[in-house]
Write a structure and sequence with these properties.
Layout lengths: L27 E14 L12 E14 L9 H12 L6 E2 H4 L7 H15 L8 E10 L2 E6 H5 L2
Helix pairs in contact: 1-3
Length: 155
């Protein structure tokens, strides 16, 4: 049998731990968050099934790095969600992508760079020097495109 312990004395600020102890290190750390959205699109100049209007349940994974703040947080996951909801998802979820994205062939390869650019733009002037390290865009559970900082920045 596995036992469990009930915590009887919660750690208290200024009694058991002090403010200056909350930040354990000064290293760059990556946090990651994923989202899904449903959208329709079709591809131009493509001979295959995808030239026809069809849809996907996409999955996006963000990898964002930064330095921890005074209490040991790089970026609150809720802030990543807020950027996603207000600045990116509104252009994607339950939309016809050929209509809502800039003029491009709506391939996963093009879309992942657009998503990267939108998130990078949202992180400008972040106090913890947050930046996008990678974005993965899954078009199906087994097929994805990826944009990485070193690829996008060095072009």
């Amino acid at each position: 049998m596995y036992g469990f312990t009930i915590v009887e004395n919660l750690q208290k600020m200024n009694d058991d731990i002090n403010y200056h102890e909350l930040k354990y290190h000064q290293k760059r750390v990556m946090v990651s968050k994923e989202f899904t959205f449903d959208a329709a699109h079709h591809l131009h100049c493509y001979e295959g099934k995808c030239k026809n209007l069809h849809g996907h349940t996409y999955k996006v994974i963000f990898g964002i790095s930064g330095h921890v703040n005074d209490i040991g947080i790089v970026m609150d996951f809720g802030n990543i969600k807020q950027i996603w909801k207000e600045q990116i998802e509104v252009h994607l979820d339950h939309r016809y992508l050929n209509e809502t994205l800039p003029n491009m062939n709506t391939t996963a390869e093009n879309m992942v760079v657009w998503i990267y650019e939108k998130m990078e733009e949202a992180l400008q002037n972040d106090p913890n020097d947050c930046r996008v390290e990678f974005i993965k865009l899954y078009e199906t559970p087994t097929s994805y495109a990826e944009a990485r900082r070193e690829w996008v920045s060095n072009e």
